[in-house]
Design goal:
Nitrilase/N-carbamoyl-D-aminoacid amidohydrolase; alpha/beta; six-stranded mixed sheet; Rossmann fold; 2 domains
Length: 582
C-alpha cells in the first residue's frame, strides 16, 4: 500500500492555519498516487494545546475542521489527529482521537488508550482513555491505529511499564494488518533510537509493519524533531523522514495479502510506478541538540510574532553560543548583539564580544553601564552605609544591563533572549530581573559542559551550518578557552563559588534527571559529601528563581520548567539520607 506520512509543523490553536497545512499535504500526497496519508497526534489544534482544550468553542472548531478536511479525501484517505467530546456522561469530557476520513466524510474514529501524566505530559487533565481497542476497516485491510503513548508500553523495551494494557498487542489480536501511530513525541537527546527500538520490537513480535508519523517544530518549551518512519514486518527500517523540518514521506509499505504490490484492489491506483524508499540520515548527539535549539528558537519567534532578536554579549561562552544559534534561526540581519562593559569587564571580554559580532556579521552596539552603576550606588549610598559590598552591589550591574536590553527590545520590537545555561539555573548562579530577563531561555536545558561541546561543534564540525556559511570558526577561541566569569567583581571566576562544571553537571544530571539521592551520588561518584549536599541545597533553594525565569527549550530527559514540579517553600533535609558518622 502506498502511504504518505505528513510530517507537518502545526501552531497550537491555529486551527485554520493547521487545516491549511493538512489540506496541502493531502493534495501533495494525492499527486504521488498515495492511497492513505497519515498526520500527527492532535494535528488540527497542535500539540500541546494545554488549557485551550477546556474551551468548548475550540473543540467545536476542531470537529468542524475535521468535517471540512474530510471533503478533501476523495480518491485518497487520511488519518487526522484531533480532540473531540467523549461518549461518556461521566469522567473527563474529551477524547484524544484520530479519525480515518475518506469518500468525502469522517468514517472511523479511534481514541488514545494510554494517557501520559509524567514529565511535560498532563493528558489525564483533559482526556478520557479510549473505552476499548478497535481495528479500522479500510478497503481490503484492517488498520491498527494508535496514538503516540499507545506504542510506549512494550515489556521488552520500557524499563518500567506504566500501564496495565498494551494497545499494540490488542490491535494485533484483533486482526490488524499493519500498525499506524499518530504521534507528537518531543525531542530529547538520543530519544529517536528508543522510538526505533519500540517500533522494531512491535513489528517483529507481530510480523506487521509499523508506520509512525511525528509532529515537527517548536511549540513553547517543546521541540518536535519529526523523524517519521516506517519499519517493515521483520523490524527493518524501510523509510525515514527528515529531522527538524517538515516533510512528506511517501512509501510503498509491504502488507500481507497484497502480493507485494502495495496497492488496494479497487483503488484505481494499481498502475502506480513503484516508489524508491527514502531513508534520511538524521543528526545525532550534539548536532541534534544544535538543530533542536535552532528550530525551537525560530518557531518560538515566528509563532509569537517576533522577527528579530536582541541579546547581551559578554564575551563569554554562553552568550556566544546563543548568538550563533540566533543567527542560524533568524539570519544575521535579524540579530543585534549588545556589549555592556562595567568597571570590572576585561578588555579581552569586550574584544571577544566584538569579534563574535564581526564573525557573525550582526548589528553590534557598545553601551557602557558605568554611569548607571555609579548612579545606583549613589542613590543607595545612605541605605547601604556601614555594610560591606557583596552580592547586592554585584547584581546592580546585571540589573542595569537588563534594563538596557529590555529598552532596546521595547523600542524595536525584538525579542530579548536570555543566555544562561542549565548549570547556572540549577544553583541560582544568575540574577533575577538582570541576566534572567527576556522572552526565551535558549540554553536553560543545556549544561555548561554541553555549551562548550556546542561551541566546538559550531566552530569545527564540517556539518556545522555556520561553519559552512561563514567559511571559518565564528566563536573566538579565547571565548572557549578562558575561565568562565560573571565579571561582577575584580578577578572573579565561576569556580570561586562553584565546583568545576564537570562535577556540577554530573551532580545535576544525577539529582535532577535521575532523581538520585545525595548518598547515591556520593557513593557512585566519590565526590565530597559536603560539596554534594551544598549543591543539592542550592538546587532546592533556587526554585523560586526558576519559577520566575523565561520559558526554556527542553532537550534533555528532565528540564527545569513545567515538567518538573517542585515546591518553593519546602525543607526536606537530604542529610537524613546520608549514613550517620561518629
Amino acid at each position: 500500500m502506498r502511504v504518505a506520512l505528513a510530517q507537518i509543523n502545526p501552531t497550537v490553536g491555529d486551527i485554520e492555519g493547521n487545516s491549511r497545512l493538512i489540506r496541502e499535504a493531502i493534495r501533495k500526497a494525492g499527486d504521488s498516487e498515495t492511497e492513505l496519508v497519515i498526520f500527527p497526534e492532535l494535528t488540527v489544534i497542535g500539540y500541546p494545546p494545554k488549557d485551550l482544550l477546556l474551551k468548548p468553542a475550540v473543540i467545536r472548531a476542531c470537529e468542524q475542521a475535521v468535517r471540512d478536511l474530510a471533503k478533501e479525501c476523495r480518491g485518497i484517505a487520511a488519518v487526522i489527529g484531533h480532540p473531540c467530546p467523549s461518549d461518556n456522561s461521566q469522567g473527563r469530557m474529551l477524547y484524544n482521537a484520530a479519525t480515518l476520513c475518506h469518500d468525502g466524510r469522517p468514517q472511523h474514529r479511534r481514541v488514545k488508550s494510554l494517557l501520559p501524566t509524567y514529565d511535560v505530559f498532563d493528558e489525564h487533565r483533559y482526556f478520557e482513555p479510549g473505552p476499548d481497542v478497535q481495528i479500522t476497516p479500510f478497503n481490503d485491510l484492517q488498520l491498527g491505529i494508535s496514538i503516540c503513548e499507545d506504542l510506549w508500553n512494550d515489556r521488552d523495551v520500557v524499563v518500567r511499564q506504566l500501564y496495565h494494557d498494551n494497545p499494540i498487542s490488542e490491535l494485533a489480536r484483533h486482526g490488524a494488518d499493519l500498525f499506524i501511530n499518530c504521534s507528537a513525541s518531543p525531542f530529547t537527546l538520543d530519544k529517536h533510537a528508543l522510538r526505533i527500538r519500540l517500533m522494531r520490537e512491535a513489528a517483529k513480535r507481530h510480523g506487521l509493519p509499523v508506520l509512525y508519523c511525528n509532529q515537527v517544530g517548536g511549540n513553547d518549551e517543546l521541540v518536535f524533531d519529526g523523524c517519521s518512519c516506517v519499519v517493515g514486518p521483520g523490524g527493518e527500517l524501510i523509510a525515514q523522514a527528515k529531522g527538524f523540518e517538515e516533510d512528506l514521506l511517501v512509501v510503498d509499505v509491504p502488507v500481507a495479502g497484497r502480493g507485494g504490490k502495495g496497492l488496494a484492489a479497487g483503488s484505481g491506483k494499481q498502475n502506480a510506478k513503484p516508489k524508491a524508499a527514502r531513508v534520511e540520515t538524521l543528526s545525532e548527539g550534539i548536532a541534534s541538540a544544535y538543530h533542536a535549539l535552532v528550530l525551537g528558537l525560530r518557531d518560538y519567534c515566528g509563532k509569537c510574532g517576533f522577527k528579530s532578536i536582541v541579546l547581551g554579549l559578554s564575551g563569554g561562552i554562553d552568550s556566544a553560543v546563543c548568538c550563533a544559534i540566533a543567527v542560524a534561526a533568524l539570519g544575521r540581519e535579524n540579530v543585534r548583539g549588545v556589549t555592556m562593559p562595567s568597571r570590572f569587564s576585561s578588555d579581552g571580554s569586550v574584544n571577544d564580544a566584538e569579534r563574535l559580532a564581526h564573525n557573525l556579521e550582526i548589528t553590534f552596539d557598545t553601551v557602557a553601564i558605568e554611569p548607571a552603576h555609579q548612579a545606583f550606588e549613589s542613590m543607595l549610598g545612605s541605605i547601604f552605609a556601614g555594610t560591606d559590598p557583596g552580592v547586592a552591589e554585584e547584581n546592580i550591574q546585571a540589573r542595569a544591563r537588563g534594563v538596557l536590553l529590555m529598552a532596546i527590545s521595547n523600542k524595536f520590537g525584538s525579542m530579548l533572549v536570555t543566555t544562561g545555561n542549565k548549570s547556572e539555573l540549577a544553583v541560582g548562579y544568575c540574577t533575577l530581573y538582570g541576566d534572567m530577563a527576556g522572552g526565551l531561555a535558549v540554553l536553560s536545558d543545556v549544561p555548561k559542559t554541553m555549551v562548550y561541546d556546542l561551541a566546538n561543534w559550531i566552530n569545527d564540525d564540517p556539518a556545522s551550518p555556520l561553519r559552512k556559511k561563514f567559511g571559518k570558526p565564528v566563536i573566538p577561541s579565547d571565548t572557549i578557552t578562558k575561565p568562565p566569569s560573571a565579571e561582577l567583581r575584580e578577578d572573579q571566576t565561576d569556580q570561586d563559588s562553584l565546583p568545576p562544571y564537570e562535577v556540577l553537571d554530573e551532580i545535576i544530571e544525577r539529582f535532577v534527571e535521575q532523581e538520585q539521592s545525595a548518598q547515591q551520588i556520593v557513593t557512585e561518584t566519590g565526590f565530597d559529601a559536603e560539596m554534594v549536599l551544598k549543591m543539592i541545597r542550592l538546587i532546592d533553594l533556587n526554585e523560586y528563581k526558576r519559577k520566575q525565569a523565561a520559558p526554556g527549550l527542553k532537550i534533555t530527559g528532565r528540564a527545569f520548567g513545567f515538567g518538573r514540579r517542585m515546591p518553593i517553600a519546602q525543607r526536606y533535609d537530604y542529610r537524613r539520607s546520608m549514613p550517620k558518622t561518629d
